[in-house]
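Per your request, structure below.
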């Protein structure tokens, strides 16, 4: 059942209201839409608007593989249940792909391509032709080989098309009362590996457990990067004093050793998106310019 249009009823600036209504019109023009839904800030807004505009002709498809933490799957499921949105899970195994398993710089391209090919099949089985994903205008500024797969497969990017940045998406999400408006950014666990480091199910599990431990300690914005047998922890700079305290430092060290890390380090620069790309920056810029 289609929900009442929200665009004119939410408290937004004129500029954001215009972008929001543009997004509604873009989605309305599809007629039906499958959303690659991770449960993150971007895809939650996209799915929410698709459901409002298209009703039962909107479908959420969530990928399941070893690189997706269980908490993200639970949150995605709970959101769809709470909103009455059609939702299916899509199981893939990117570890079967050599370029993914040995973590080549274009790992994300091969992974995204496999995921969206599978999502396309599931969408057709549910009577939906158009597939979408949740990238925004800020995502074109970093090395994002996954967007090359999106372009090649003809996957729609309505948030980017509507001109929405991450900040815009958070503001609109807050105005709509979406639970994700303040959720920290998330990327799959494979992004925690140094390029060339072999990705295994066991290592992915180690990172998942370690990051959940940090979250449980109150470090909501964090990453655990893997360099051989070294865990490099990134947290928001505002957490530095707390994480360096003897009590917290000891807890983290002892738990990480139990998980299986030999060495535990703290990155003094703090959390930042795509820090693993620093090692391939010149090549990344070249590849990005080639396909854009």
């Amino acid at each position: 059942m289609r929900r009442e249009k929200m665009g004119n009823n939410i408290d937004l600036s004129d500029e954001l209201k215009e972008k929001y209504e543009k997004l509604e019109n873009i989605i309305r023009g599809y007629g039906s839409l499958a959303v690659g839904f991770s449960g993150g800030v971007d895809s939650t807004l996209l799915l929410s608007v698709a459901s409002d505009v298209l009703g039962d002709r909107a479908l959420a498809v969530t990928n399941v593989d070893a690189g997706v933490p269980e908490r993200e799957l639970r949150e995605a499921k709970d959101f769809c249940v709470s909103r009455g949105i059609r939702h299916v899970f899509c199981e893939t195994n990117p570890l079967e792909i050599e370029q993914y398993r040995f973590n080549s710089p274009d790992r994300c391209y091969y992974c995204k391509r496999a995921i969206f090919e599978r999502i396309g099949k599931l969408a057709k089985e549910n009577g939906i032709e158009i597939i979408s994903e949740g990238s925004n205008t800020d995502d074109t500024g970093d090395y994002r080989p996954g967007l090359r797969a999106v372009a090649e497969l003809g996957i729609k990017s309505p948030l980017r098309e509507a001109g929405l940045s991450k900040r815009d998406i958070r503001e609109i999400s807050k105005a709509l009362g979406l639970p994700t408006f303040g959720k920290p950014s998330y990327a799959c666990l494979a992004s925690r590996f140094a390029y060339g480091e072999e990705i295994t199910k066991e290592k992915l599990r180690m990172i998942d457990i370690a990051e959940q431990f940090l979250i449980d300690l109150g470090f909501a914005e964090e990453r655990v990067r893997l360099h051989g047998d070294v865990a490099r922890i990134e947290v928001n700079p505002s957490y530095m004093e707390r994480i360096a305290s003897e009590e917290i430092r000891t807890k983290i060290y002892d738990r990480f050793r139990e998980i299986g890390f030999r060495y535990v380090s703290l990155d003094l620069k703090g959390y930042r998106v795509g820090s693993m790309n620093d090692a391939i920056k010149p090549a990344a810029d070249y590849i990005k310019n080639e396909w854009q």
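Residues 1-7, 282-292 have pLDDT under 50 and may be disordered.

Regards,
D.
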